[in-house]
């Protein structure tokens, strides 16, 4: 399946600021079952973006705007091909626990086994595990992860804007509600304390059915756990599903703090307002490269002729990718 992705970020400032320094993590990873065909980053006011690969293998774009401005718009556009993942077994051998213990003893996957700032266990987490009656190592790792994925889905309400990007897991545990970031952080804390390497994944999801709880106009997050017999396997506790063809990986980290889509600072005495709009289009469903009007918070943003959703060269690349598969 081919996907065209548009991720629009707009900062508005209450007064004129004199400089912005920003880093952006919106370029999908090209690995495993997904291949990046094209990527474009459009910045207004105009700025030249440099990029590098961080210590976790994520592509990071950086730029600065030295002139005075009261608004900053960042539009990331990507074209990506995603293959279906193979079917997974319901369970794996109980001997996998010994292999996981060996990984921990050798220091392998240390980053994915150690609690991070946003995934540290708390008394509220202990209480939730007791309530959900989650086994420790009675079952095999795959069975345990499937059960954990389902029980977290049923234990929490998906409520947009109920937490903040820097909210600790206790906020979601107390209210029993949150967004995909909270579901993922709680599951990471549970998985790591059982000796299973696990990482936070930020990305996008193409909604497949009305019952999916993920927001259509936002980024998504899920968990990848490492199982010796299978490798990295994705679990989406927000939607109670295994990660599939509709999940598109952008960045991996210990928790959200490693992979925010945008992070920066500015000079000036002003308040900032952030609006974000995300669209994921299955390219096989339409030959029209335009998304049309996009809802951006309280306002409407309509693409202009000099800022198309998919530029001509990107759409040409999509056609080339299709031809290569024929």
Please describe what this structure looks like:
The chain is of the alpha+beta class and 326 residues long. It folds into two domains: 2-83 and 261-324, Immunoglobulin-like, CATH 2.60.40.2250; 96-244, C8orf32 fold (Roll), CATH 3.10.620. It has helices at 96-105, 110-113, 123-132, 141-155, 169-175, 180-192, 312-324; strands at residues 2-17, 19-24, 34-44, 50-53, 59-65, 69-82, 157-158, 177-178, 198-205, 220-227, 231-236, 241-242, 247-253, 262-267, 272-282, 294-296, 299-301. It has a five-stranded antiparallel beta sheet. A four-stranded antiparallel beta sheet has the order 3-6-1-15, covered by helices on one side. Helix 4 (141-155) runs antiparallel to helix 6 (180-192). The longest helix is centred in the middle third of the chain and has 15 residues, at 141-155. The protein is globular, with a radius of gyration of 20 Å. The chain starts with a strand and ends with a helix. Residues 285-312 have low confidence and may be disordered.
